[in-house]
Amino acid sequence: MKYLNGRFVKDLGNRLAVTVENQKGRIETQERIQKNSKYRGKISSGRTRVSNEVELWIPGFPVLITQKQVADRVEGGLGLYLGIQNLTEKCILAVYVDVECYSVLKEKLASLKDVCFLDMDLEAGEIYETKKGIELPDPTIRFCDIYLRHVVFTDETIWSCNGDMPMRNMPVQQLRNPGHETEKDAVMLGQEINRAASAGFRYEPDQDYQYWRCACGQVNGFPMVVKGNIVWKGETCIACGSRKDEIFKLADQTLLAEKRAEREAREEADRARMEAKRKETAEQIRKKAEILTEKLKGMA
Question: Residues 96, 69: contact at Cβ < 8 Å?
């Protein structure tokens, strides 16, 4: 259980609604969500025109885009709705992005500079999304590239990037192969990984030299430094809290086979004990029946 912004959050599915005044003086509602990076919840209440299927990220960046949706705004026109996840252990105060907008034919239609999200108070692993999307200037916009420019932490350190590379799609993470294990194996693995985690063991953990992905589906960066300070150690999953070394150990098919053999041996021993107990009980009943029969014969 974590204590966040004056309220207790008990599980990965809870939302924390926060009312803030935005940079234009309007009151709006933001939501900070405890989910992993596979979360694709609909943000706008209007019709969604285009949405992402995988996370968008550049390894080494302190935030990840969980949702990128072009959708109708309640106020009219189109809006760009983003889900932004904090991949560091520090609290994020603000995020600045540039947005390049394109038609369905990939013709460039507009550029938005220094779009800012303020008063985020985004803790480690949390996802920030706002119900008021970024207003898009052309109704034919369908695709948007996101360029992360600045991340401001509550301790006043600032991460910045002036590169020309937009946030890009992550490779699809493979689901666990149902043929790899039985239902009992899956339950055992889920318990062994993290008995307190509710996310489960749904995906094949994987890694490259820039990141690793947990069995719960969360993207995790390796150790990250901002202004000489370590902001993420990368040893545990930022969503479910499982340790990286344990996750990959439990994904090892050799270990799975060993644990399956141990479990089957225990189950076989239990069956043998139950069968022996059944036979013993049956024998006791048979003997008692014989004794009773002899007594009845003597009384006849």
Answer: no
Beta bridge partners of 33: 15, 127
In this structure, how many other beta carbons lie within 10 angstroms of the beta carbon of residue 277? 10
Q: Rounded mean pLDDT of 57-71?
A: 95
The pLDDT, as a whole number, for residue 14 is: 44
pLDDT in tens, 77-131: 999 999 999 999 899 999 999 999 999 999 999 999 999 999 999 999 999 997 7
- Which residues touch 49 (CB under 8 Å, ≥6 apart)? 70, 71, 72, 78, 142
Distance CA 133, CA 50 (A): 14
Domain with CATH 2.60.210 in the chain: 2-169
Q: Crossing angle for the helix pair 253-299 and 183-193, nearest 10 degrees?
A: 120
Is residue 171 helix, strand or coil?
Answer: coil
As a whole number of angstroms, the distance between CA 36 and CA 59 comes to 17
Overall pTM > 0.90: no
Q: Return d(Cα 230, Cα 226) in angstroms, integer.
A: 6
- Residue 80 CB contacts under 8 Å (≥ 6 apart), including other chains: 68, 69, 70, 99, 133, 134, 136, 144
What is the second-level CATH architecture of the domain 2-169? Answer: Sandwich (2.60)
Class of residue 54 by CB neighbours under 10 A (exposed 0-12, middle 13-18, buried 19+): middle
Angle at the Cα of 38 (from 32 to 41), degrees rounded to 5?
55
DSSP string, 43-62: --SS-EEEE-SS-EE-TT-S
